[in-house]
Amino acid sequence: MRIMLNLAHHGYFNLPQPKRHLLSIEHLKRKDIEYFLQQAHVFAQKPVLDVRRYQSQFAEVPMLMQVFFENSTRTRTSFDIAAHRLGLRTHHLSVQTSSVHKGESLTDTIHNLSAMGADLFVMRHNHSGAAHAMAYALADTPIRVVNAGDGQHAHPTQALLDMYTIWQHAGDFTGLSVAIVGDVLHSRVARSNIFALGILGCPDIRVIGPRTLLPRDVHTWGVRVFDHLHEGLLDVDVVMTLRLQKERMSSGLLPSMQAYHRAYGVTLDALAHAKPHALVMHPGPMNRGVEIDSAVADGAQSCILKQVEYGVYVRMAVMDCLLLGSI
Ligand code: CP
User: Fold this and answer.
1) C-beta of residue 43 within 8 angstroms of C-beta of residue 85
2) Which of 8, 295, 300, 308 has the greatest number of CB atoms lying within 10 Å of its CB?
3) pLDDT of residue 65
4) pLDDT of residue 16
5) Per-residue model confidence (pLDDT) at position 248
C-alpha cells in the first residue's frame, strides 16, 4: 500500500533523511519497523544494561538533549526513563525560560545546544517540519534527531509504540482490521499510524469521523472512510481513539462537544460493534466523555496504560538503534 500525504509544500520534507534520525514513519522500510519492535521486546525483558554499551562509538557516555516547545506528559517522561535505563546522560532545555523568548531562532538554539555536547536531540514542536529543519541544521554533524511530534505532521515514536502494542495484544498485522476514530485532520498520531500500519501490511485501515475533521485527500491514503461510527467499527480488531485537538482547531468545525460525543464518542454501546476482544487504544491525553467514555477507557479491552508502558521500551530501542547505527 502506498500512501502519499500532501506535504510537498514544505521543502524540508523532501530532503534525504539520513538513517541516524527518526523524523517520520513513511521513510522506514518494513524491516526497519520490525527491527525497532524486536529491539523494544528485548529491552522489555532486560531492565539492566551494560553501561559500556556505547564505549566503542563514543568517547563519553552519550548525551540526550530534550527540547520540547509543546507540553508533554508521556513522551518526554518516557524518553527520560528510557535514557536512564540505557545509561545515557540527559539534559532538558526549559523552553519557557530559555532565550527562545528573546527571539533566538530554532537553528541558533540547536547549534548552541549541540556546542554543549549533545549527541541526540529529541524535539517536540508545534510547527510541522520543525524536526526536519533541525536535522537539516545538523547535517554536518553526527548528531541524531528524534521527532517527538511536529505540528500536525508526525509522531513516529507514538506510532512505533502503538505498533508494538498491537503486535503484543493482537498479533500479526496482515490479518487485522484497525479503525482510527476522530480528529484525523489535526492528528500527527493518525498520520504516523496510518503509514506504519500500511508498511506492516495491515489490509484494512479505516478512518471514522465527521467530514470536518478528516483531511480532504484522506481517500488517497489507502484507508476506508466512514461517516458513521457503528458501521466503521463493525468487526474491527483494534479501535484507536484520537483526542479532539482543540488547540489546533479553527472554530465552527463541530456543532458542540456533546454532539460530537453522541455521534463519535467511543462508548460501550459503540464498542460492541467491534470484535468481542477488540483492543481499545488512545495516545493520550484523553478527553473523557468526549472522544471516549471512562467505561471504555478503563474497561477490560483497554490497552491505554500498556501503550504508555511500552513507550519506554520502544524509546529505548529507538535511541539505542540510532546511537549504535544498527538500523
Ligand atoms: N501521546 C503523547 O504524545 O502524549 P504527550 O503529549 O503527553 O507526550
Assistant:
1) yes
2) 308
3) 97
4) 61
5) 73
* pLDDT computed for residue 1 by the predictor: 35
| Ligand 1 centroid distance, CA of 75 (Å) | 5
Q: How far apart are CA 272 and CA 276, in angstroms?
A: 7
The confidence score (pLDDT) of residue 12 equals 62
Q: What percentage of residues in the chain have a pLDDT greater than 70?
A: 94
pLDDT at 299: 98
Which ranges in 116-182 belong to alpha helices (H)? 130-137, 156-169
Amino acid at 31: K
Cα of 73 vs centre of ligand 1, distance in Å, is 6
Q: 3-state DSSP helix/strand/coil percent for the chain, to nearest 5?
A: 45, 15, 40
Which residues of the chain fall below pLDDT 50? 1-10
Residue bearing cell 467514555: 293
Angle 69-214-24 from CA coordinates, rounded to 5°? 45
Return the sign of the alpha-carbon dihedral for residues 28, 216, 283, 122: positive
pLDDT of residue 4: 35
Q: Is the Cβ atom of 74 under 6 angstroms away from ligand 1?
A: yes
Integer Cα distance of 175 and 86 in angstroms: 34
Distance CA 225, CA 222 (A): 10
**CB atoms closer than 10 angstroms to residue 100:** 17
Give just the sign of the alpha carbon dihedral 121, 124, 125, 129.
positive
- Which residues sit opposite 208 in a β-bridge? 181, 226
* Closest C-alpha to 66, from 148, 123, 109, 107: 123
Measured from the Cα of 77, ligand 1's closest atom is 8
How many CB atoms sit inside 10 A of residue 319's CB?
25
